Amino acid sequence: MDQDNKISNQSTPSPSDGAARLVILGAGESGVGAAYLAQQQGFDVFVSDFGGIADNYKKQLEDWRIPFEEKQHTEELIMNAAEVVKSPGIPDKAPIIKKLHEKGTPVISEIEFAGRYTDAKIIGITGSNGKTTTTSLTYHILKDAGMNVGLAGNIGKSFAYQVATEKFDWYVLELSSFMLDDMFRFKVDIAVLLNITPDHLDRYDYKLENYAASKFRITQNQTVADYFIYCADDPETIKGMKERTFGAQLLPFSIQQKFEPGAYLDNNDNIVINTTQEHFTMSIQDLALQGKHNIYNSMASGIVAKVLELRNETMRESMGNFKSIEHRLEFVANISGIRFINDSKATNVNSTWYALESMTSDVVLILGGVDKGNDYTMLNDLVKQKVKAIVCLGKDNKRIHEAFDDMVEIIVNTSSAQEAATVAYHLATKGDTVLLSPACASFDLFKNYEDRGDQFKAAVKEL
């Protein structure tokens, strides 16, 4: 809370103060984009990354003549900042962030910074699971309808870079809890909260309520002219809502009960969306995205589209032809009658639950990586019903063994995507599915979840 007050009580530094110094910590997609926008706005910009900077980002900074450093944080070049934009991946407990907070220097996200320089309307989407799918689907529907819309946040080109180089009327932003933590004055016109399940608890003192509070920041600064779209079936969301008041108009979605206004599933398995506009209905059989979790994702995107008064025919077409995103329940190949599915983006237990819930055959499950304080018990019933073998893919698989040794006859340890794919192939029989849905972060053996998914797909294609 102190940080909230610190930001809101300080004036925003601007170049008119005589080239105000803006320091950017982290030179990934968001940091480099923020640096470009800051330079364009006349700030004295400096970029510092405690790790190495990827060659493509280094080249961009060099081409733009923006000073930077890597593999260190030089305090005298950072502590003189009027304001700091930090990468979502840097925790508040990092020594340099602690020092900046102690000094009273505002530390904000790239989204907060970029939001100052655009008049575009914002659709913000958050949740523990389904963010990327729902953000991509919403963008797909709006773009197909002919809207002038950008896609940013945790996905695609950085928001700041697009604000500097494009002129969109709308943005669809995928917002992680880490981004929301460093957003203060930024306002989302249409906010979507899909669900709240335990994730990243290592960043939140292992308290679910702290993580939930981050998710609810998506509604801060909203007014009666805005909308808050949420899942009425999600217990943590409903619990959090009881403790808060909301300025925006509330639009719930549910597959368990009827909501008007809002979205629900009727007795004939049709999604029904009712805002103030004409009702929208669509059979779940006609949705491009199948599985129970994707009914929720489609409902959320559909409510956004109806709020924007898009035509029902356009919505139906877009929701029926959307191509699933890479690394999220992505079909890879069918080899000897065995289906291989890449769900590398499943970096928490809840995502893996959704993946298993949508499986219709016996499964050889590839699990493992960096465990973020996972509780695997929610998988127990699905593992008993559907999983014939588990292939562990990680440096430390002890907790997976503890969770499932008594439940699954075969659990094998592997240390590469190639080994995992090969072992899983030999454990599976015709009609089975080999599912990479790790429930863990990827940083022990891979650069990120994309790298893990790409290596898995390459390994499958070599079988």
From TrEMBL:
Key words of the record: ATP-binding, Cell cycle, Cell division, Cell shape, Cell wall biogenesis/degradation, Cytoplasm, Ligase, Nucleotide-binding, Peptidoglycan synthesis
Pfam families, per database record: Mur_ligase_C (PF02875), Mur_ligase_M (PF08245), MurD-like_N (PF21799)
GO CC aspect terms: cytoplasm
Subcellular location: Cytoplasm
Residue ranges occupied by any Mur ligase central domain in the UniProt entry: 125-304
Protein name as it appears in the record: UDP-N-acetylmuramoylalanine--D-glutamate ligase
Sequence similarity: Belongs to the MurCDEF family.
Keyword check for Mitochondrion: no
Catalytic activity, reaction form: UDP-N-acetyl-alpha-D-muramoyl-L-alanine + D-glutamate + ATP = UDP-N-acetyl-alpha-D-muramoyl-L-alanyl-D-glutamate + ADP + phosphate + H(+)
Function noted in UniProt: Cell wall formation. Catalyzes the addition of glutamate to the nucleotide precursor UDP-N-acetylmuramoyl-L-alanine (UMA).
Domain of life: Bacteria
Gene, per the UniProt record: murD
Source species of the chain: Mucilaginibacter rubeus
Top-level class of the enzyme under EC nomenclature: ligase
Chief location: cytoplasm
